[in-house]
Amino acid sequence: MLILVTGGTGYIGSHTVLALLDAGYEVLIADNYINSKPEALRRVRKLSGQDVPFALCDLRDEAATDALFAAHPDIEAVIHFAGLKAVGESVHKPFLYYDNNLKSTLNLLNAMQKYGVHAFVFSSSATVYGDPVSLPIREDAPLHVASPYGRTKLMIEEMLRDIAQADPAFRVSLLRYFNPVGAHPSGLIGEDPNGIPNNLMPFIAQVAVGKLDRLPIYGDDYDTPDGTGVRDYIHVCDLAEGHVAALKALTAPGVYTFNLGTGLGYSVFDIVHEYERACGHPIAYAMKPRRAGDVASCYADPSQARDTLHWEAKRDLAQMCEDSWNFQRNNPDGYNDD
Ligand code: WQD
Predict the structure, then answer these.
(1) Which of 119, 130, 231, 283 is 20 to 30 A away from residue 107, measured at CA?
(2) Atom 34 of ligand 1 has which residue's CA nearest to it?
(3) Mean pLDDT value across the chain
(4) 338 pLDDT higher than 70
């Protein structure tokens, strides 16, 4: 069964490609390297021992997207990661985010319908919950987005609900990620953000390896145990395995929504202290004012995924930090090292 993985050389995409191959699926990766590097593909091929097929394809190009499906009539399902995901950048460049995230998804869905491909797993995000009204967050919680990035995720979810309503052949799984962190235990693939990291763990990793001077901690006056933000961090390998479980369960028409999180909330200081244990030395930090758009706490009720997908996160915070550190210290400059 051939699975098209868009954005398959990215952070979560590359880990999911490995999990799919481990589960016996055939994979075709389509990517345009807007937020990833060819080295990631070389390492996925090395780790899997397979010459994983790759198509350089910008999904914003309707003709190129159509040609991708025409050239691969054996595609049976799509896992769609391709998209821009920096919240702050989306505020300054909304057109880039609407153009990239919405146009590419529409081209993909058009091609899927034309070529009779109806199984679709979508990379959504807990960002659609905004500032949660209650915790832990269930899938039926109110949705409220506060950035163009978040709006593209919610718009795509709504598009998919409408499409599946109009064409009952479609089988759609919406996976709402909480905070993906960590790396494959080999230390060969991991998180390699362009420029200064927006997210907490890659920033800590770069401080730990000496690439950055100190961690800015955005706010210590939240209504949380130690005043810093609380999030549901999930190991990227658990997240990848969640996609395989969602694909296997996608047997009936309709739209199915799942939180992919651990159900546990950890503060910024919890992460800093666990990372210090993993790397064996202190992480320098400086307290800063709150970051615009941040919420105090956000963590999942993952019971729907547990009960329906028979999936739950297995790796703990220590493993997340150890695997993140293992990748960072083996690749101080990310994939640019090679
Ligand atoms: C986590 C905590 C920060 C950086 C974002 C997106 C979300 C999803 C995951 C795509 C917060 C604090 C962070 C730093 C800090 N991405 N922090 N110093 O904001 O929960 O979620 O990434 O889907 O859509 O919004 O993750 O890692 O940026 O922040 O103190 O340098 O760490 O304030 O409390 P976030 P994050």
Answers:
(1) 130
(2) 229
(3) 97
(4) no
Nearest residue (CA) to ligand 1, atom 26: 199
Q: What is the DSSP letter of 98?
A: I
Cα separation of 272 and 283, whole Å?
7
Using CA of residue 14, residue 63, residue 255, residue 96, what is the dihedral sign?
positive
Pocket test for ligand 1, best of 294, 320, 321, 324 (most atoms within 8 A of CB): 294
Tokens of residue 212, six digits = 């950055």
Tokens representing 28 are: 């075709």
Å from CA of 199 to ligand 1 middle: 5
Reply yes or no on whether the pLDDT at 151 is more than 60: yes
- Residue 235 C-alpha from the chain's centroid: 11
**Cα(50)–Cα(29) distance, integer angstroms:** 13
Provide long-range contacts, Cβ within 8 A and 24+ apart, for 155-163: 155/102, 156/101, 156/102, 156/105, 156/122, 156/124, 157/122, 157/124, 157/128, 157/257, 159/105, 159/106, 159/109, 160/109, 160/120, 160/122, 160/255, 161/255, 163/109, 163/113
The residue whose two tokens read 């191959």 is: 21
